[in-house]
Amino acid sequence: MAKILIPYGTSEGQTARIADYISDLLQAHGHQADTLDLKHAEHELPDGYDAVIVGASVHAGKHEGFVADFVRRNRSRLESLPTALFSVSLAAHGDPEDAEKYVKEFEDSTGWQPDKVAMFGGALLYTQYGFLKRMMMKKIVSSKGSEDTDTGRDYIYTEWDGVRRFAEAFLVYVDRNPGPSS
Residue 146 belongs to what domain range? Predict the structure, then answer.
């Protein structure tokens, strides 16, 4: 049984939902999995974990700065463990080249090269936005050619089967490349 930490950053909650889903899945496979909201946590990687899956969402073309700070601060420890990154963005749903660019920029800015990377579609939560953000998001989405402009509803783009496959593939990787405390 591996002990896996899932530190994440989220702005609107979809990355947290994905982190919780991964945690539940890892636990169902007999592992210990703990999530950690980096917005409300210490910035040191806790001791005793065998692997780490970092989650970060993209807003305005960048991952959260506090997630990048966490990775930079803990980079040497992350490099000694099996690690993964999942990036959550609207681009992952409709513009994979942009989604890959965001991940590359995150890796370049932190100096960290995770062992596994996944990009998941996020959510367009019109009903939770204020008027200005709702109109701005509608304009952005429309300019990208999407027809998802009905501001009276939300759009969830996360492909949960892909999240499951990513988590299970990471478990296989951890089994083959155990961390120092395994």
Answer: 123-156
Which residues are paired to 117 by β-bridges?
Answer: 85
Question: In CATH, what number is assigned to the domain containing residue 168?
Answer: 3.40.50.360
Looking at the fold, whether 112 and 146 belong to one and the same domain comes out as no
**Domains in the chain, number:** 2
Integer distance in angstroms from the first to the last C-alpha of the chain? 8
Of the pLDDT bands very low, low, confident and very high (cuts 50, 70, 90), residue 182 is: very low
Determine what percent of the chain is predicted with pLDDT higher than 70: 98
Separation CA 42–CA 97 (nearest Å): 33
Confidence of residue 75 (pLDDT cuts 50, 70, 90): very high
Tens digits of residue pLDDT in 114-126: 999 999 999 999 9
Residues 150 and 96 grouped into a single domain: no
pTM over 0.85: yes
Q: Do 38 and 92 belong together in one domain?
A: yes
Q: Over the range 134-160, which residues count as b (16 or more CB within 10 Å of their CB) and which as e?
A: beebbeebeeeebebeebeeebebbee
